[in-house]
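Hi everyone, sorry if this is the wrong subforum. Our group has a chain we'd like a structural model of before ordering constructs, and none of us has done structure prediction before. Sequence below.
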Amino acid sequence: MPRITKTSHVMEALLAEINRPETQHGDCLPSERELGEQFHVSRVVIRGALARLEQEGLIYRMQGKGAFVSKNKVNQNASRLTSFTQDMLQRNMTPGSKILAKEFIPSTPFLSSKLQIPREEPVFMLKRLRMADDSPMAIEVCYLREWIGRQIADHMVDGASLYQSLAEKCGIRLKYAMQTIEVGTLEKTERDLLGGNCPRCTAIITRQTFDVDNNVVEFVESRYRSDRYLFGMLLDMEKPNGSV
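Answer:
Right subforum, don't worry. Here is the predicted structure as tokens:
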């Protein structure tokens, strides 16, 4: 094999191996020493390539065990308003959630703006660890209007569906949402919640959800494992008048 000197070239070579049809999620990559010998480069170059692959969610690393291929991302259609529970059921996965916190808190100017409520009005905060087949997928923090929280607080237990509770306990019919997706970095406590092998890079999803009367129902901020989740959407081309 010819000598490879750049981190990007090593990364491309490893990507080719990862993308082979026979490569499976969880397959262990060779050690840093073995990769260095294979590509005739220093371990510094190998570590740089592995770090970039980990940041992009293509591999995950476990302390003392090595680097592993990450191929089983859950694909979510980011152009449709569905609950996490619905997404998992549609993929024949068992949804789950663990309540991390639920309480009424003072609002902030930011939350008041997002929920379109007076600044002095408290909000109900629901923080959950979202699971799929008992595997952590995301940390979700949801903020709701006070009256909604009063109606559903006692019903929000581990495994309960928020959207189902909104419909059954509050008579709320959701219509649409405004959603943003950006890349961020997880804190150590968040990585611990999502699993010891969770990459530092995360997809941060914020969503402002409205009912059929155009009232804001919730504001949500979620941090997803970048190695387990893939967001896809259908984009239509807007054609100017007279164009083909």
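For your construct planning: The longest strand covers residues 174-185. Residues 74-232 form a domain with the Chorismate lyase fold (CATH 3.40.1410.10).
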